[in-house]
Structure formats: structure tokens, C-alpha cells
């Protein structure tokens, strides 16, 4: 944008809810009003903020598309005294009376951006590049557009794009720059992973310098099942410098005076603070958007459940959590004391339910059906499943949401009990490797006046406490070693040979890869959890259960 | 194909395993030999039969792609005295040293068909139309090709396509016909649903008449997680008449003498026989390909577990099944007798484990934590979860696979207990509506010398028997009504208003749709099961859990 052009632009970093078209329209309407009150000439909303993102197969339902189109028309009527750009799913005409096998089957909608001005839908821009990798399935839902758009607002010539459109060089942004755009807008629904904010700003800076245009990026904020949208919207001048930046993990109206070249510039979070913030927002929104008002956490005195309890207390308030302590004959007294201490420190309710009697009832029931009764893995899993049943009984009796406490290292190698500690509605830390679990607990303790998690929880060697003197290290390599191999295999898609060539012990690599491959059936039945890495299990890494390829 | 052209073509309807590249190559090599021994000049294998289909994110792993390319080269060396067309994933060169955000990101492979002749890979055809709807995600994995191919074998001019390429009119088949192809080959990985075979033949008949060419369709056969490939390969003359057809649900080498215009024409299965065959093959392959040798079924005396037990006995032999009967104080004596009778009729092992003592242990444990103890839903779910735990303990102790018994009607409305009767590795009938469950049991009884399922199982009103005198009809509409609404909503994507306009009771529709929408979290944690309809839960219907759109 040339220095002489002047435009007051508002970036509306909002948190809509998937499917809640009427509520989202009301939210957008409120923020249009706020932006007008701030003197903005144009307010930009994120990609698909009216229907919500990702709405998955809702985008295939014609009546859902119609509901969002109707809501857009109503919003347009209210857009007076300010221009607004609103992301919506634009329905396309159905082919009528054509046999499904005798015509191309176009998608039912465009991923689109509507310019609302003077009570009208004045213009529609349609996304051209539809990501269909990683967590994205947009070619399942949307027909690509093919027309670049440059619109005039006040004195500014403004190019329109949507998210992925600018992640690769070339059209539409390159054409819009040739057509004289001095500012290019990029409304997005760009999900979080560690380091994504810096990746985005670096990419936009290259585009700004290539095209000699300013850029503004307006991102969704909020949690949606596995995904967290981190916000961190920004405006950037043509040299690639960030001239205004919104905060992360919260709604914000970022007002930028282009020409004057300034707005507030929020300091980005530190690395651990950022991951922690993603977990808090992801959990809070899952709970809130699904209508729960209380969560249950099985607090064992171990580090994983400690982190989940911390995140829950920060997301919902300790008073909205019940910590459940379920001792068995294998539970250490010090571990149990730590569990109670954590629950008390967080101001949560404490419930204690010993499981020994139930263990005895199962032993008796199975005595005739398993030679020598349930021992080994069967006996260990039974303890975890008794606890899972008790958690679910509390959930069923009270309508509370059970949070599970497994970390990514465990989920990778299957070191968890299906229907046991994996039983619950939301797996808060399933994408957090064990080594990062420690860092996050230390970080959270460090920013608290007094440590919320006793140091003994951090220092005690990890154990599932399902048999006497059990340690995780009996079954697994050290977590430092394990997490390195997992990062290479799961996140890096490296082969066994590549990992070994990089210096890992071949026998350990073989065993870890075998465990990862054989645990796919467990992961399929795991609850959803928050993605914080560039390759999470779930919608991001899709492997068959029936799979004979090793490594 | 003109009458004077003569070609002996073999369609190799084989059952490879996803990821098992070396084993699949050996299978293909054997069948090339068989086809040569039958005097065939050309043998056609299904789409992607070398790496397996769908291999999902394995197709993103460069070392997996390389393994399948290496295996293809070895196969080529063995192809002497016959030409072979083999489906494989052709690796594409990686962009080297390019920043991921600064270049288009092409897929790593083509979905391809290699012509092996005289010890060489003589030609490669690349699929042009990549389905990305329903259960298909091919635009995630493959770069489309853009060149039609006509090859010469003996006197025949043969056009090449792959599956979806011919499901819409136009290129590449239309161009290949213009170029003089008199036979167009269509290797496929076309998954089963009810009625798919007839749909396929009707579609191909239209193409044959449009282009004036003969067609040959060679399909995979076998189960892969949720999908069953039904085979039913065929050859069709230019008038659209089927001149040779392979059987369904089994491997077969179908040899066709074009010119002479004939081959064996298998009679298609009847409607119920076909669904039943899909269930048997889907289960058999899940068990076999995942290395299990025995299954566990909780046989209740109800119709659903009866069907699962029937399918398991037909898939694996009754001697490879253990039927588990787990009475509670709410179990009816006649129901229990029926359960035992079914297990005996099928020649399976019978294990009985009463659950009353475990129920008492949970009541005691929860007495202090739930006011008045676990009652209502919590108590009912506890019974189902005790049974789930017992099944999993037997599974853990012996390494056997637990089959779950829920049908599609229950999975739709959430009338099942997570971690209870939903606990297990494979959900055999999860895509079979309750009304079809009855039809299938009656059908299977009718083709047996004596009924395997006692008539009382079919006649007794459905009940979960989790409280005294409980009936499914206390909580649900009649299954006739329910299944009609579900077909419209789940399979037809109709709106609430459309379903009501078609004559359904508005209050019932509202309640059913609410139950379906609110049960998404349960379905996410369900084991995979066999798709038999055109819209199954799982990879075929992808809705968010956090979703405020109703209807």
C-alpha cells in the first residue's frame, strides 16, 4: 500500500461455532457494529466464519448451505456505513435431473468471501486453491473459483484471496498485484501447530516483497474438535514488516490505519506459553461448544494427569472440575498423596473410590474362563478398565465430561488401555509428547506464585502402577529416545532405515515402529484431542488398521 | 471390439493385502503364470493391486512408493510369453530443496497401470479422474495423469482407463474410442454397497453403446477395514451386453475370448445373499489379514448377536469362535437358553460368566460418590461395561478378536454403550439397519437344513435386558419407522423438513435427528465395521462432533 493511501481496516478475529449459523450471524453483526464504532471503513472476517470451519460433511447438505446463504443476505441488509467482507459457503446450482453416473459431479459450494456494502452483497470472491492434505479436505467440499478480485474501498485498491490462495506463489495474488492492488487481504481458517505463527509471517513477508503489496491476514480463533485456531491476525507493509498484530487464542478487533502505517503489535507468546495456550483454548471450546459445565479428571499423581488437571483448571476454573483418585493395592502412598494435593491446589472437588473390591469380583468371575485367572496384561488392563467404568458412571450420573490423560508418546506406541484410561470424551494432551509434558508442567509451575504440581510428581520415575514396582522404562525406551524416534517416524514420515542412519539403535527403532504400527486400532477408538504438532494422529495421519507395511 | 478381432483376455480378480508389497507381487506373479497357462495373451489386474487399496497415508511415504516400484520392476522381468497390466502407485520426482511454502506441492505418486511385456515395463497409463467424495480421498494422494492410452495386443487395439475415469462421460475413454480402440479396459478398486453391481453394469453398458467399444472391468476382491471389494468383474460387448462375469466375494481368473465373444457368465447373487456375502468376506479378511485365529462374540439371545455369530461361523468356521453368555439378574431365562442354543448350533465354544457379583462391587464402590448409588442410565451402562471388560479380559488373555454386535439403527441413534457392548475390534453389522438384520437371519435360516437361530429369537420383542421388562420400544420408535427416517437422514442427506413433508411424524423426526446428531462422539470411538450401504458411518459420512446445526 502506498504511503499516501489511507484506509482504516478492522480485522475481526472471532470465534464462531461450527453449524451455529444464526449465532454466528449475530456475532458477525455485533462485530460489524464494533468496527463501525471504531471508525473502520472496512471490516474483514475469517474464512468460512458464517457456517464455521471445518464443518466437514455439513458442507454437502443443501439445506445447511441454504441456511448460511440466507443468513448472509440478512447480514448484508445490516451493513450500512461500513463495508464488510464475510467468509461463507456459497451454494452452487444443483444439476437437475441428471443421472449421477452420466455427468461430472461438481461440488455443491464455493469457499467464498462476500463483500457486503450499502445493504447489498456487492461482490463474491471464490477461493481458488483448495488444500487437500494434512487436516484439510477442501476438494471434497468446494468447487474452485477462477477469478482474481480487486475492489475499491475508500482510496485503497484491495486484492482478495482466501487462506491457501497465498501459500504458493502465483495467482490470484500475483495477478491482483499486477492489477494495481496495494493491499491484499487473506481471511483464513489456519489451524495451530507449534511454530505455525512464525511460518505464516515469514511466508507472507516473502509474498509482500515479491508483489510489492501490503498484506492483512485475519484468522479464526477457537477450538473445533481436534483443531485450535490461534488467531494471531496481522497486517504487514510492502516490505514484509508486521505493522499490527493481534494476540493469540482470544477474540480481538485489530484496527489498522494503513497509510499511517500502524496499529497495536502484540508480542508473540513464548514457545511453551503458546502450546499451553492452545491446550487451554482447545479444551475450553470443546467443553463450552458441546454444552458441558463440568469435567472429570482421573488424577493419579503422575505427570500426565497433573498437566490435564492444570489445563482444565486454567480453561474452566478449578471449581468446574472433579478430580477422581482411584487407589488400588499397587498404588504408591506418595503418588496418592500427590494426587490429592494437586486436586486441592487447583480448588477442584475430590472424589476417592478404591478399586480393590471390583478387582476381586472380576478375578472371581474370570477364574473359570481363564486358566489361572486374569494375570499379566489382562489383569493390568482390568484395573484400568475398572477405573474407566467408574469415571463413566460418574459421567452418566451427572452429565459431566471425562477428560483422558494419555500423551502422544503413549498414544503412539499403544501404552494405554482401550476402554480404560483411554475412556472419555476429550483427550487433552494426546498430541503432546511426554518430554513436552514435563516442560509444560515445569513452565506452568514457574509462572504460579507457588508450584501447583508437587516437585515429587516431576521427579518420580514414570509408572502406570498396575503391578508392583512397575516402571514405564520396563516396557519402553527412555522418553528422550522414544520421542526422538517418534518425531522422525510419525511427524517426519521417515523410514526405518533413515532413522537408523541418523544414529538410533536399530533394535529400538524396530521395536518402536512395530508398536506404533500395531496400535493403529487403539488410536481409531481414542477420543479426539488437541492438535499441537504439524502431524497429529486423527485427521492429520490417516493409516489403515489392516496394514502389512512395516516401517 | 469388432467380431473379426480375436484376443484371449484374462481378468485376474485377486485379493491382495494393503501394504504387503512382496506378498502381493508373489500373488500377481502366480496369477500371471495361471493366465499364461490358460492361453491368455493379456492379463489384467485391478487398480493399485500391488500396494493395496486404499493404503491411505502409506501413499505419502516415499519409501513405501519405492518398495512398490521396485516390486513392479521385478514382476516385469518375469512377464514373458504374456502381457500383463498391473495397478501400482507410480512415484513422482520430489521437488528438491524448495521451501514448502514457495512452490506448488504436487502429490508424490500417480495412480497408475503398468503394461509389462517381454521383461519390461513397456508403458504406464495414469488415472485422470481422481474421486474425492464418499469413501474416496484420491486427491489427497495422487497427481492426475492427462494422456489417453491405446495399446496393441495381438490384433486388438485396447484403450486404458482406471476406475473413476469411465464413471463420467468424456476423456479418456471417449478419446481412446476415437483413436480406434475396440476394447477399453477398466481395472478398478470399486467397493461394495447394496446394488452397486447392477449400477456398474448399467453405467458401463451406456459407455459401450456411446463409444461403440467393448469394455472389460476387473475389480479387486476382499475386505480392507470398512470396505469390501466384491469382485463381480465382467466383460461386455459393444452393445452393452455382459458376455462374461466372475463371481462375487471370491478370487477368480475370468478368461474371455473376445471375437468368439464368450466366457463364463456367473449368475449374480440375490439381494440378501449378496449383503450376507459381503459381511462374511469383510469379516474373514479383517480377521485373516490382521493375524487373528479366533473370535469372541457376546451372544445374548437377541437377534443382533445371532447374526454376528452366524456371519462369524460362515466366515471362519464355528470352531474358530467362542460364544460368551453373560447373564445378569435382568436376563430372561428363555433369552439365555436361546443364546446357548445358537452357540451350540454353530459348533462354537461356549463360555458363561455371570455378572451379578461385579455389579455389586461397583454399587458398593460408587455408593459414596453418587447420591443413591448408580441408577438409571449409569446402572444400565455399568452392566454393559462389565460385559465389555470381561470380553476384553478374555481377548487380552488369549489374543482373540472381540466382535461387537451393534447394528446401524443403534449406531445411528446412540442406543449402545460406549466401552460396553461397543467394546471390541470389529463391528460386523454396524452398517446393517435393524430391519435388514431380521431379513438376513431369516435368509440364513432358510438356506440351512435346520434353522441355526431359534424362531423365538426372531419373534421376541427386542430388548437390551438392562432393567426389568425393558423393551427397545420404550426408548425408540418402531424399527420400521426408525429405519425409514434414518435412510432419509443418514443415507439421503435429507433435511428435517423434507422428511416431514414425505409423511413422517414431526415429533418423531425431531427426536430421531437429535439422537443421531448427539451420538457422533460415540460413533467416533466405535470400531470399524463393514460398509454395505451407499452411506456408512466412518470414512463415508464425516461430521464434526462439535456441531450446532440441527437437522
Tell me what you see in this structure.
Two copies of one chain form a homodimer. Chain A is of the alpha/beta class and 551 residues long. Chain A folds into two domains: 7-95 and 105-268, Carbon-nitrogen hydrolase (Nitrilase/N-carbamoyl-D-aminoacid amidohydrolase), CATH 3.60.110.10; 290-524, Rossmann fold (3-Layer(aba) Sandwich). Chain A contains 18 helices and 19 strands. Chain A has a six-stranded mixed β-sheet, with helices on one face. Chain A has a six-stranded mixed β-sheet with strand order 6-7-8-9-12-13. Chain A has a five-stranded parallel β-sheet with strand order 17-16-15-18-19, with helices on both faces. In chain A, helix 1 (21-37) runs parallel beside helix 2 (62-78). The mean pLDDT of chain A is 95.
Low-confidence stretches of chain A: none
Strand order of the largest sheet of chain A: 5-4-3-2-1-14
Q: Based on the coordinates given, report the CATH architecture of the largest domain in chain A.
A: 4-Layer Sandwich
Largest sheet of chain A: 6 strands, mixed
Provide the residue-averaged pLDDT of chain A.
95
Number of domains of chain A: 2
> Which oligomeric form is depicted?
homodimer
Q: What is the number of helices of chain A?
A: 18
CATH topology of the largest domain in chain A: Nitrilase/N-carbamoyl-D-aminoacid amidohydrolase
Quick one: CATH superfamily of the largest domain in chain A?
A: Carbon-nitrogen hydrolase
Structural class of chain A: alpha/beta
State the share of residues found in helices of chain A, binned by percent: 25-40%
SS elements, strand count of chain A = 19
Distance between the termini of chain A: 51 Å
* The CATH top-level class label of the largest domain in chain A: Alpha Beta
Cα radius of gyration of chain A in angstroms: 26 Å
